[in-house]
Predict the structure.
Amino acid sequence: MSRRFRGFFPVVIDIETAGFNAKTDALLEIAAVTLKFDEQGNLKLDKKQHFHVHPFEGANIEQASLDFNGIDPDNPLRGAVSEHEALTQIFSLVRAEQKQYECQRSVLVGHNPGFDMGFLLAAVERINVKRNPFHPFTTFDTATLSGLAVGQTVLAKACEMAKISFDNQQAHSALYDTEKTAELFCYIVNRWKRLGGWPLGD
């Protein structure tokens, strides 16, 4: 893993929110999927974590965002936890996996990951986490990669081109979108290997 991604450990992240402003709008749901190589050297999904999150105190909530993602922040059946609990548990898993694979830093993999990274870093600042395992600005973007690999940048359409099943009714759930983004990233990395692009030739 460390040789393949220059010492980075890739972790797929998706975040659902109550708006577009990472500083003011609530983080409502977060999921993370770690990856591993199988015995044939193909990248595959490994461990998963998923949390519904209580809006932080004073958070702004845009109704249009709730209408889009279908989240009801006040529903007690969500089983929501604090930002601190969600990120502490995710970071603990990521650091353990990162160490296991002898990587120096983790890198966020996402579909248009600037959005997810912005909300992640804002939450880290709010809860004053000291040991954030993620690189502060490097990300792997499956929208860009799938534009190159399959000629599509929308997640659902890219998955369709890669013959990955995609249910639009389940989309915009953090866990579902994270799993599909992870499958797409693995597809691209593994296809590049099959085409002879890795290991690098002389």
Summary: Residues 174-194 form the longest helix (21 residues). The helical segments are 63-69, 83-100, 113-127, 142-149, 155-161, 174-194. The chain has six helices and five strands.
